[in-house]
Amino acid sequence: MTQGPLTTEAGAPVADNQNSETAGVGGPVLVQDQLLLEKLAHFNRERIPERVVHARGAAAYGTFTLTRDVSRWTRAAFLSEVGKQTETFLRFSTVAGNLGSADAVRDPRGWALKFYTEDGNYDLVGNNTPVFFVKDAIKFPDFIHTQKRDPYTGSQEADNVWDFWGLSPESTHQVTWLFGDRGIPASYRHMNGYGSHTYQWNNEAGEAFWVKYHFKTDQGIRNLTTEEAVKVSGLDPDSHQRDLRESIERGDFPCWTVQVQIMPVADAAGYRFNPFDLTKVWPHEDYPPIEIGRLELNRNPDNVFAEVEQSIFSPANFVPGIGPSPDKMLQGRLFAYGDAHRYRVGINAADLPVNRPHAAEARTNSRDGFLYDGRHKGAKNYEPNSFGGPVQTDRPLWQSTPVTGATGNHEAPSHAEDNDFVQAGNLYRLMSEGEKERLVDNLAGFIAKVSRDDIAERAIGNFRQADGDFGKRLEAAVQELRG
Ligand code: HEM
């Protein structure tokens, strides 16, 4: 802001910002006190709806550098040349808590990454976990209702959480992950990020590949135990947000090594797992991760509301050379985010400085609506036109996917080794004895709060199916706590 007198929103100088105007000394306040009315009215409108999930978060700008030639798999311009750099914006978040909730809680962390590319913004909206709780978007609102506040008590309820998870065996893998050591990262810097879904890459020759993204923290994985997290949450609810900002302020820029797993499209139909099932990983022995780049965060936002609260990310924002897969969760998300943004930030949300393309220009015929800034001036707002307006390219961003069969409420196709427990069991068996103990304790502490035996028993049953020892230990631990 420049120097000069305090003004009203219309720019008129303010004479007194301490005393509102009254009819005489001690008399009632006058409506002609424009400054008072303006201040109170603006204050009343300072909040916009918080995100329905991932409300609590922090973000920073950064740079993505490509370190490997990936042109045989994708024609994405920002991935075209080794050494090429692209500006990014990364928002981290927790999922279930409200805007003012504590950072150090057991919850997945959001990993919403915007690449400002020369072909427009590419958003990769993932988590710090490679898998998710459910595999069809139609289940997402029900799932989130069980994580959020109960309509009667106004609090998160163990009954709701475990009722849903127990009745949704596909959640067993992600729940095992969440209650393990990585369920409470020590900071946003000390955790990995994942694209989670399978996406499509396609090259200049028109060949398509299925791809999964991994961002491996160069700071090393660091976590909090449940006891440590309780303390940190109480002492410093903003712990992760503060850690991120301060590390960037002191020039200690956090970095991640970027890897991809690539599956030729011809492998997908016969792969041992459904490669589009978000509750499963692709084991590294099947598709080894390939290092392709480095992500560094190096600039804090100047204004949290403008750049973090109003930032928007959509899994539907692709660029040429990258596209969706048939993952039923991803397909639902292609709708959900744009819709959320129009409600939460408004129809011109994509024009805000943090959201608009930085290395390209948005040339659309969409106009007007609340807070339209008139950037198109007098340009024609229809297409085709004879006035040199923007024209279509005739080249889709991604390759088409063959489909067969009749419409219907189908489950995704089943593959030879698909079941809801195999990867959860593998994860458990990979853990050290200490990790297993903490996992069982964390789960038991929460399941013990469930009020109904049948709900608790069904939830335990899923872990028993993942691994007999896991189930046995969990059952004993819950029994001990319930007395
Ligand atoms: C079909 C399932 C899902 C639906 C319908 C859904 C919907 C939403 C909505 C409505 C928001 C708030 C957006 C906003 O107001 O700006 C959101 C935020 C978010 N979701 Fe999802 N979500 C789903 C699954 C997932 C999955 C599987 C992941 C990760 C793998 C994920 C990661 C995120 C992240 C990181 C954010 C925060 C974005 C930000 O920082 O602004 N979501 N989701």
Question: Would you mind describing this structure in some detail?
Answer:
There is one protein chain. With 483 residues, the protein is an alpha+beta fold. Among the domains are: 57-145 and 186-351, Catalase core domain (Catalase HpII,  Chain A, domain 1), CATH 2.40.180; 422-482, no CATH class. Helices cover 28% and strands 16% of the residues. The protein contains 13 helices and 10 strands. It has helices at residues 34-44, 140-147, 158-167, 172-178, 226-235, 239-249, 265-268, 304-309, 328-344, 422-430, 433-447, 453-466, 468-482; strands at residues 57-66, 85-94, 109-117, 120-127, 193-194, 199-202, 208-217, 255-264, 290-299, 322-323. Strands 1, 2, 3, 4, 5, 6, 7, 8, 9 and 10 form a 10-stranded antiparallel sheet that branches. Strand 6 (199-202) and strand 7 form a beta hairpin. Helix 2 packs antiparallel against helix 3 and helix 3 crosses helix 12. The termini are far apart. The model has no long low-confidence stretch (mean pLDDT 97). Residues 7-391 form the Catalase core domain. Residues 1-24, 381-419 are annotated as: Disordered. It holds the Pfam family Catalase-rel.
Q: Looking at this structure, what is the CATH superfamily of the domain at 57-145 and 186-351?
A: Catalase core domain
Name of the level-1 CATH class of the domain at 57-145 and 186-351: Mainly Beta
> How confident is the prediction overall: mean pLDDT?
97
Q: Helix- and strand-based class? A: alpha+beta
Kindly report the oligomeric state of this protein.
Answer: single chain
The fraction of residues assigned to DSSP E strands is 15-25%
Q: State the share of residues found in helices, binned by percent.
A: 25-40%
Which residue ranges are poorly predicted, with pLDDT under 50 across at least 5 consecutive positions? none
Helix-strand pattern: HEEEEHHHEEEHHEHEHEHHHHH
The CATH architecture assignment of the domain at 57-145 and 186-351 turns out to be Beta Barrel
- Overall body shape: globular
Please give the radius of gyration in angstroms: 25 Å
First-last Cα distance: 63 Å
Q: Treating each run of at least 4 consecutive H or I residues as one helix, how many helices?
A: 13
Q: Report the count of strand segments.
A: 10
Largest sheet: 10 strands, antiparallel
- And the CATH topology of the domain at 57-145 and 186-351? Catalase HpII,  Chain A, domain 1
Bound ligands, each once: protoporphyrin IX containing FE
